[in-house]
Amino acid sequence: MKIIAKEKIAENLTKFIIDSPLIAQKALPGQFIILMVNEKGERIPLTIVSTDKEQKSITIIFQEVGYTTKLLGTMEPGESLYSLVGPLGKPSPIKNYGKVIVLGGGVGIAELLPIARALKDAGCKVTSILGGRTAELVILKEQIKETSDDLYITTDDGTLGKKGLVTDPLKRLLEENKDYGLVFCVGPLPMMKAVADVTRKFKIKTLVCLNSIMIDGTGMCGGCRVTINGETKFTCVDGPDFDGHDVDFNELMTRQKRFIAHENNAMCKLQEKIKKEGL
Ligand code: FES
């Protein structure tokens, strides 16, 4: 559980390579880990971006958005995490779907990379669409390009690719040709909802990777519950991939906001600590 390497890949986005022989041996695309920075800390789920069986390590990329991810970002190579559990969740259903479109937004691009690679290795023709607020936040472009037959990029401010949303090229592609076996999307909830709304009209199978708030990661606490086609499911054991046309996104977006007050309080305390201790 020792951090072997650390790299800042964009503002607030950090990559860690972590020594983890057992997880490196077993993890499959789409699976995730839950880590704790310290004994009293929160547990956070993070997708395994890649594994290195020889180096016996896993790679994770995280966005420093809340208390725990900020604290994680202060850790340095040589330091050890308090705990690391995984691989968790069901692996993504990888097979040759023919032509596929994969979409990633923000840090979701890191989560998309292993899926895109696996789909390509399974024989799919992969069209990738990446999006972000601004050029710097469209990460891992080269790696995604290597695994794609076509790549489209959109940014909110037009600093890279076309100005607009990932749904713009998606709509265009589907209007030109409906012959896609799968659309796979990982990104912020509003983006996944928008993508599912587009593909619903074209009746194309669409998987989204949900990253809900998790506690135990074993299906026992109910913290990560989501409503799928009217039924309660647990993201940690039934997911993280679900049919995007069946997800109750509005309920999930409301649930994701329920700890905002606690989070803001914890962030203020952390910022004071960082200032005082110069972390
Ligand atoms: S994290 Fe507890 S049920 Fe999924």
Overview of this structure, please?
By secondary structure, this protein is α/β, with parallel strands linked by helices. It folds into 2 domains: about 5-90, Beta Barrel (Elongation Factor Tu (Ef-tu), domain 3); about 100-255, 3-Layer(aba) Sandwich (Rossmann fold), CATH 3.40.50.80. About 30% of the residues lie in helices and about 30% in strands. It has 9 helices and 16 strands. Strands 11-10-9-8-12-13-16 form a 7-stranded mixed sheet, sandwiched between helices. Strands 1-2-6-5 form a 4-stranded antiparallel sheet. A 3-stranded antiparallel sheet has the order 4-3-7, with no helix packed on it. Strand 14 (about 225-230) and strand 15 (about 230-235) form a beta hairpin. Helix 5 packs parallel to helix 6 (about 190-200). The mean pLDDT is about 90. The structure holds FE2/S2 (inorganic) cluster (FES). FE2/S2 (inorganic) cluster binds near residues 215, 220 and 224.
Which runs of at least 5 residues are low in confidence (pLDDT < 50)? none
Radius of gyration: 18 Å
> What is the typical, i.e. mean, pLDDT?
90
- Cα(first) to Cα(last) distance is 21 Å
**N-to-C SSE series?**
EEHEEEEHEEHEHEEHEHEEEHEHH
> Largest sheet, order of strands side by side?
11-10-9-8-12-13-16
Q: What's the architecture of the largest domain in CATH terms?
A: 3-Layer(aba) Sandwich
Oligomer: single chain
Q: Regarding CATH, which class of the largest domain?
A: Alpha Beta
Give me the number of helical elements. 9
Counting structural domains, the number is 2
Set out the fold topology:
Elements: E1 3-10, E2 13-19, H1 21-26, E3 32-36, E4 43-47, E5 50-52, E6 57-63, H2 67-73, E7 83-88, E8 99-105, H3 108-121, E9 125-132, H4 141-146, E10 150-155, E11 162-163, H5 167-176, E12 182-186, H6 189-202, E13 206-209, E14 225-228, E15 231-234, H7 235-238, E16 241-243, H8 249-256, H9 260-277
Parallel strand pairs: 8-9, 8-12, 9-10, 10-11, 12-13
Antiparallel strand pairs: 1-2, 2-6, 3-4, 3-7, 5-6, 13-16, 14-15
Helix pairs in contact: 5-6
